[in-house]
């Protein structure tokens, strides 16, 4: 190929056009992906498979959905990570749910949830433990430092004491706060 030809005016234009098309396709693709990911992150999306489970009602009955401030914490606020890469990875793990949805007998029934609550809860807790309850910390930023005056004495003391421990002896939020939204079964 004659490289010099690339710098002829006509070739230059077609290269620029190609580059522009590339940029447009890239940008459109980027936003389409964002939209898809976003659409798959609403409560409705989660509840499309869990529609017969009491999970949403549990949120609404808890401090995370039933408080006087009118805040409803969304499923993904607690269950999906914030970083784009971690988010994609977790999504791919969540898409394993598609397989479960198609193969688990009677999955979308309250009976199934009641029967399997403990096992499912422990699976969910694994994720919180693996990242030191990062999703909780995303909202609750003043638990260990700069605690608000209004926080109860008991809570302050427990949080401070825990923060002073060696990192490997420290508990994470969900170790002490189980069943804050869904009922955590005793056994
Ligand atoms: C395609 C259907 C489907 C969708 C959509 C879905 N789930 Fe699930 N989910 C399942 C199935 C099936 C299981 C249990 C089977 C298993 O453990 O493989 C499950 C289990 C869970 C668990 C407990 C087990 C674990 O690994 O943590 C959590 C938490 C959960 N889902 C949250 C969510 C959230 C949050 C969303 C929305 C972002 C969501 N699900 C969307 C089908 C679905
Ligand atoms: C999207 C933001 C958000 C996320 C994520 C979140 N919280 Fe909360 N949390 C709140 C709000 C808002 C309140 C109510 C505050 C109030 O009443 O003053 C609350 C209240 C609480 C309370 C006190 C009420 C109760 O139920 O005992 C605890 C404990 C708590 N959260 C722990 C957690 C833990 C543990 C996680 C992670 C599993 C978490 N939160 C995730 C926003 C959030
Ligand atoms: C060592 C156990 C322990 C750990 C770890 C812990 N907490 Fe607590 N927390 C408590 C206790 C005990 C209370 C007081 C009783 C209650 O409200 O459940 C409390 C209270 C709270 C309250 C309510 C404060 C108030 O004044 O009403 C919130 C919110 C809270 N914790 C969030 C968190 C979050 C978020 C994390 C993780 C960053 C966390 N906690 C880690 C034990 C702990
Ligand atoms: C404030 C945080 C928070 C919100 C909001 C939340 N979850 Fe959870 N979820 C948890 C925690 C923490 C667990 C681990 C078990 C426990 O402590 O009860 C859990 C457990 C689960 C489980 C396993 C079964 C069980 O009951 O433990 C499923 C399924 C689930 N969540 C789905 C959902 C769906 C769907 C939504 C939205 C309608 C949602 N969650 C909203 C924090 C949350």
Automatic annotation (TrEMBL):
GO terms for cellular component: plasma membrane. Keywords: Cell membrane, Electron transport, Heme, Iron, Membrane, Metal-binding, Transmembrane, Transmembrane helix, Transport. The chain crosses the membrane at residues 12-32. Signal peptide: none annotated. The keyword Cell membrane applies. Heme 3 binds at residue 140. GO terms for molecular function: electron transfer activity; heme binding; metal ion binding. Its main location: membrane. Its cofactor is heme. The keyword Cytoplasm does not apply. A menaquinol binds at residues 90, 97. One of its GO terms (biological process) is denitrification pathway. InterPro entries: Cytochrome_c-type_ET, Multihaem_cyt_sf, NapC/NirT/NrfH, NapC/NirT_cyt_c_N, NapC/NirT_cytc_sf. Binds 4 heme groups per subunit. Coiled coil: none annotated. It is a single-pass membrane protein. SUPFAM superfamilies: Multiheme cytochromes (SSF48695). Heme 1 binds at residues 46, 49, 97. Binds 4 heme groups per subunit. Heme 4 binds at residues 136, 139, 173, 176-177. Pfam families: Cytochrom_NNT (PF03264). Belongs to the NapC/NirT/NrfH family. This is Cytochrome c-type protein. It comes from Shewanella maritima.
């Amino acid at each position: 190929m004659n490289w010099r030809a690339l710098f002829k005016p006509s070739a230059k234009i077609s290269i620029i056009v190609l580059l522009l098309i590339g940029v447009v396709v890239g940008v459109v693709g980027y936003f389409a992906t964002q939209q898809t990911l976003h659409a798959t992150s609403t409560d409705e999306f989660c509840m499309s498979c869990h529609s017969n489970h009491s999970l949403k009602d549990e949120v609404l009955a808890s401090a995370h959905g039933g408080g006087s401030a009118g805040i409803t914490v969304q499923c993904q606020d607690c269950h999906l990570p914030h970083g784009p890469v971690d988010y994609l990875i977790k999504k791919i793990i969540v898409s394993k749910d598609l397989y479960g949805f198609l193969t688990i007998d009677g999955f979308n029934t309250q009976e199934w949830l009641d029967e399997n609550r403990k096992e499912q809860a422990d699976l969910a807790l694994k994720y919180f433990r693996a990242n030191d309850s990062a999703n909780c910390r995303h909202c609750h930023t003043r638990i260990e430092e700069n605690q608000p005056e209004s926080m109860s004495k008991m809570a302050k003391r427990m949080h401070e004491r825990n923060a002073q421990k060696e990192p490997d002896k420290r508990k994470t939020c969900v170790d002490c706060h189980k069943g804050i939204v869904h009922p955590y079964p005793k056994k």
